[in-house]
Design brief:
The chain is built from 16 helices and five strands. By secondary structure, it is α+β, with helices and mostly antiparallel strands. The two termini are about 60 Å apart.
Amino acid sequence: MNDSRNRDDETPSWLVSYAALWRSVPGSLAYLIGGFALSMVAISVLSSVFFSGVGMVILVVGVPIIVGSLLAARGFGMADRTLMRLTGLPEIAEPTWPTAAPEASTVSKLVSPMKSGHYWSYLLHQMLIAPILATITFSVAITWAATTLGGLTFWLWAWTFTSKASTVGDWIARGLGVTGGARILEAVIYLILGVVSGVTLPWVLRGLSHVHHGVASAMLGRWPSDDLAVEVRQESAARVAALQAEDSAMRRLERDLHDGPQQRLVRLQMDLAAVERRVAAGNHEEAIAITQEAQTQAKAALEELRALSRGVAPPLLQDRGLTAALMQLGQDSPLTVTTTLDPAIDEVVPADTARALYFVVAELLTNAAKHSGGRSVELTGNLRYDEPQRLRMTVTDDGHGGATLLDGHGLVGLRERLAGLRGQLTVESPEGGPTRVEVTVPLRTVPLP
């Protein structure tokens, strides 16, 4: 077995590449033949429909006919891209197709394809470029394949000729002054042609397929503007999500302040007024009792304010950075928190991202303390240096599990807050635990134009 492996390792790289080219021959040949047939159908259909629409555009009815030709061109283009998979070349990415807004009028929805450059590019490709290119490549491919097959097999069937007409072998034989063996000479010549064309056939078919693939990539694939448009839409959606999350957080903070500390402070004010009246009346024992109750209310209000302050960026976050603030969160947690953070986080994380991550981690630690039933939490944060650069943080507790993303619950709110940063939140919490929440936030985004 070792000898066999060594022999395989000694196979020349050019021979391996050449064998791979031969494996692609059937697919390339099938595409060149099938693509030619498809382009002939496409030019027949699209030309008749499109130019009929152009001729009747003055009657208005020509507009939907033109739109129909654009939609048909998209269908033919998609079929062309699908057929091109036979060649084994990289798949051409789907472009971003325009979609009319749901509230748009019927006319706007109808003519939306006419406003897209991709539709017109598909029409131009399928109605003009592809037929010309397919005709040329089909002719070359068939000629090359026929020469290979005919040349290599000529000696099998050439002897069946009974024609008295001069052949290529006869002409060459006369030129060489040979009186016999013309048919043998002709068979040798065709065999040489068959060998040469057979050896070069994989390169020829591969080259023709690359020509089609290059043209299709430019005209039928994604454009840089598609990616930019996606980035813009994602940025817009992220900003909307951030505004909604911020509004939701402010409303919740307002509600918590009203229902908690504000009520207790009102009660404290009333108790202090009662103490003042009791002291003025000389009833010191009742005053002392009310004062003790007021202390209880003040302590409770302070605890509630401390809990609510976790939703407000602490001075430590602004002064010393995210890592210090997160480590302080771990120390303040009633659970045992093991913190492992990349020291480079503070150098690359923007201030708004750091503030949002602080709130998210604080809420996750609070949820673990309240609901997990566990005793320890592991908090990790590390940078991913792929493109775009990302920060990944995980909070893992040893509780009983069962955490889910349900509408109206805290984890969904955290996910919405992260959506404002184009980040993601995933939860793994099987029954019996542990619960692992992963937060991933990109640190580099494409600026809006």
